[in-house]
Amino acid sequence: MTRSFSSPALHDGGFAYGSRVPAGGLIVTAGLSPLDPDGAIVGPGDPVAQVGRAVECLDVLLTEQGAQRSQIAKLTVYVATADSAVLGEVWQTLDAAFDETPPAIVVGVTVLPYPGQLVEIDALIAGEPT
């Protein structure tokens, strides 16, 4: 399992600054789009619905790879917006989806691949499969 860490020398924003990855395997996901099983965007134009679906897709990959959420070392969430309120809403939705949120960053981008897509997630997952 990963171990999140912060630093007494840096601002305590209530979140981890990083994770220590134990010796072992590393799983790296490509961007996970909020697609349904037929390839359609879930919640077109709705960042909250899309975070939920992207996290569900991440859970599927974790299960298939014999990993758990506690092994997530870092999440990057891309959001097609320049609106900081939308970025904050995405962060709050992501944070609520986890019992213990791994180190994560929410980044505003210009555009994502699918029409109506506002959210995409990628992850680093540490450790040997369980």
UniProtKB/TrEMBL annotation:
Q: What is the lineage of its organism?
A: Bacteria, Bacillati, Actinomycetota, Actinomycetes, Mycobacteriales
Q: What is this protein called?
A: Endoribonuclease L-PSP
Top-level lineage group: Bacteria
SUPFAM superfamilies reported for this sequence: YjgF-like (SSF55298)
**Organism whose genome encodes this protein:** Gordonia phthalatica
